[in-house]
Amino acid sequence: DQQVKQNSPSLSVQEGRISILNCDYTNSMFDYFLWYKKYPAEGPTFLISISSIKDKNEDGRFTVFLNKSAKHLSLHIVPSQPGDSAVYFCAASAKGGGSNYKLTFGKGTLLTVNP
Amino acid sequence: NAGVMQNPRHLVRRRGQEARLRCSPMKGHSHVYWYRQLPEEGLKFMVYLQKENIIDESGMPKERFSAEFPKEGPSILRIQQVVRGDSAAYFCASSPPSGTSYEQYFGPGTRLTVT
Q1: Residue B48 burial by CB count (10 A; 0-12/13-18/19+): exposed, middle or buried?
Q2: Helical segments of A20-86, H only
Q3: Does A107 contact B40 at a Cβ distance shorter than 8 Å?
Q4: SS3 B115
Q5: Of A30, A31, A23, A62, which is closest to residue A46 (Cα–Cα)?
Q6: Alpha helix locations (H) across chain A?
Q7: CB pairs under 8 A, 24+ apart, for A79-84?
Q8: CA distances from A30 to A24, A44, A51 (A)
Q9: Which residues contact B67 (CB under 8 A, 6 or more apart)?
Q10: What is the pLDDT of residue A102?
């Protein structure tokens, strides 16, 4: 039962353009969402997060949008740079359920930014 | 300011042997989490520990797997009598005390190969 879904296994964009990575979730109890970036042979690196009380959070080139009614979030990277090439994981947790520590991850999207 | 440290980075074990994976959290972090990533999958929560306490082990297989976080020293994930299906990347994460941050910071992982 995949509660966090990243339906695009891969995405390829040109340097300087916008990258949009998508994530859908099914568990209505999720109220905190995170994006992690992972290079090969390294651990995931925290990028940006958003609470369910917001619909947008921005940090430099990275913006996360949350649509609660659609149970959908997206990560926008603009402008994309070759160093952004990595696997991006969407993760969610349920603060209110007493187990906010338990992150549920999607399978990841491999982003390739071409020079 | 050292991040989360894991060792060994690579571990090869024959079927039936024991595997011990170590994790030292970031300075100031008192919460430790273990996740497993099978090939082509996202990270799956295994266990959450605080010093000398297992808080949630709902993601741990019922047999052969155990975890501890002693008062002194690193957290240990122990897998007894390993089987080929245990081959995976095992990631440890840490976070500050509750209420200060929901983000978890990951180590580089231990890649376990069972031959």
Answers
A1: buried
A2: none
A3: yes
A4: coil
A5: A62
A6: none
A7: A79/A15, A79/A16, A79/A17, A79/A18, A80/A13, A80/A14, A80/A15, A80/A16, A80/A17, A80/A18, A80/A19, A80/A111, A80/A113, A81/A15, A81/A113, A82/A15, A82/A113, A82/A114, A82/A115, A83/A113, A84/A19, A84/A37, A84/A111, A84/A113
A8: 11, 20, 9
A9: B34, B46, B47, B49, B54, B57, B60, B75, B76, B77, B78
A10: 84
Measured between alpha carbons, how far is residue A38 from residues A101, B50, B83 in Å? 20, 26, 27
CA distance A39 to chain B (A): 10
CB–CB contact A43 B41 (8 Å): no
Read off φ and ψ for residue A82, nearest 5 degrees: -55, -35
Neighbours of B60 (CB within 10 A): 18
Contact call for B108 and A41, based on CB within 8 A: yes
Q: What is the pLDDT of residues A25-78, one digit of tens each?
A: 999 989 899 999 999 989 999 999 999 999 999 999 999 999 999 999 999 999
Residue B70 neighbours by CB distance under 10 Å:
11
Mean predicted lDDT score pLDDT of chain A: 93
Interchain CB distance below 8 Å, A101 and B95: yes
* Nearest residue on chain B to A49, alpha-carbon basis: B103
